[in-house]
Amino acid sequence: MQRQTIKLKRNPRSPAHATPLAELVVTAMNGVPGATDARIDRSESDDLVTSFLYAGRGDASVPEEYFDRFGLMQSP
User: Fold this and answer.
1) Tally of structural domains, the chain
2) d(CA 11, CA 2)
3) Of residues 63, 57, 25, 20, the one with CA closest to residue 41
4) Model's pTM, two decimal places?
5) How confident is the model at residue 73 (pLDDT cuts 50, 70, 90)?
6) Are 41 and 35 in contact (CB under 8 A)?
């Protein structure tokens, strides 16, 4: 397994959510097939950089629609 990193933030088009951003990010990433051990590495402005172990081949590919269900979006 390899550890991968992704930067996520709240989606401004989604309704306000009372759940803390860090909790949403970890919950979302732990639900990605093949991803385990999600953790927050650091905060950058309104973004959270998270890493996770990925058991699949290559890089994890997570559709934008998946993150949208949690009120999140990938940040460049």
Assistant:
1) 1
2) 27
3) 25
4) 0.86
5) very high
6) no
Q: How far apart are CA 47 and CA 10, in angstroms?
A: 8
Map tokens 């402005």 to a residue: 45
Task: For residue 11, give its domain range.
Answer: 2-74
Return the CATH number at 6: 3.30.70
Tokens 């759940």 -> residue: 19
11-62 pLDDT, tens digit per residue, is 988 877 788 999 999 999 999 999 999 999 999 988 999 999 999 888 888 9
> Is the distance from CB of 31 to CB of 55 less than 8 angstroms?
no
Q: Check whether 72 has a pLDDT greater than 80.
A: yes
Would you state the structure tokens that stand for residue 63, as one six-digit string? 């559709």
